[in-house]
Amino acid sequence: MFNIIKRTLLCIAAFSLVACATPATKDYSAFKQSKPRSIVVLPPLNNSPDINATYSVLSTVTQPLSEAGYYVFPVALVDQTFRENGMSNPGEMHQAPLTKIREVFGADSALYITISNYGTSYKVVSSDIVVTASANLIDVRNGQLLWEGTASASDAEGKNNQGGIASLLIAAVVKQVVSNVSGDGPSHRIARVASNRLLTAQPNGLLYGPRSNMYEKDR
Q1: What is the DSSP letter of 177?
Q2: CA gap 198, 218 in Å, rounded
Q3: Is residue 20 part of a domain?
Q4: What is the CATH number of the domain that holds 168?
Q5: What pLDDT does 95 receive?
Q6: Inter-CA distances, 179 with 20, 154, 174, 187, Å
Q7: What whole-number percentage of the chain has pLDDT above 90?
Q8: Cα–Cα distance measured from residue 162 to residue 159, given in angstroms and rounded to the nearest whole number
Q9: How far apart are CA 128 and CA 145, in angstroms?
């Protein structure tokens, strides 16, 4: 009996150590060696049902990347350049050869974004606006992956559902009416939050670029 209790306690202790372990940090060795100075952002792939997602998210990425210390090629110009070269949608643009991207834009790196959620997510008695996106930063000179990340944001964050089912139903109806009247406005605001979480320089996020006074202080 004593041995059984002892083994049980050891198992609990081991589980606790695993559960409380500090998350592994990302490997930045390739990033530090590459030292990208400029980023060309390709229009995001959209795996959500909302057709507004690609250009809504695309319009929110320049600010966090610039504030992190990188030169970001104007996203509208990048999109137009691809279209003038016969690539009319993000799927085709993401297949463009890296050597060609380097030749046309002169960038050090390219950011590929994929949107998995954008817009209203319906539940039994409520609806939440959710935006989720992932990104890969690629060195266009050699095709090496420099960094990857995922971020999500929702308008349900920080809410408490007090007041019972009646108030939940009323809130869901009101939110749906507001969303219909204002188009993709609410989703776009959530997209901005998600983009900032994804692309702001932070622990396990992007490293600071050469235009930031924090450059190489996080290395």
Answers
A1: H
A2: 17
A3: no
A4: 3.40.50.10610
A5: 97
A6: 40, 14, 9, 8
A7: 64
A8: 9
A9: 33
CB atoms closer than 10 angstroms to residue 149? 17
Identify the helix (H) or strand (E) that includes residue 133.
strand 127-139
For the record, the structure tokens of 169 come out as 């139903």
pLDDT at res. 186: 87
User: Total structural domains in the chain?
Assistant: 1
Does the structure show a pLDDT above 50 at 146? yes
Collapsed DSSP state (helix, strand, coil) of residue 188? helix
Residue length, the chain?
A: 219
According to the model, what pLDDT value does residue 185 have? Answer: 81
Q: Report pTM.
A: 0.78
Contact 120, 176 (CB under 8 A): yes
Q: Which residues contact 167 (CB under 8 A, 6 or more apart)?
A: none
d(CA 101, CA 41): 11
Rounded-to-integer distance, Cα 172 and Cα 190, Å: 17
| pLDDT, greater one: 19 or 28 | 28
Token look-up 């290395």 returns 219
Cα 129 from chain centroid (whole Å): 16
Is the pLDDT at 144 greater than 60, yes or no?
yes
In a domain, 9, yes or no: no
* Among the listed residues 56, 59, 50, the one whose alpha carbon sits nearest the alpha carbon of residue 185: 56
SS3 of 1-61: the string is CHHHHHHHHHHHHHHHHHHCCCCCCCCCHHHHHHCCCEEEECCCEECCCCCCHHHHHHCCC
Query: 70 is in which domain, residue-wise?
Result: 25-199
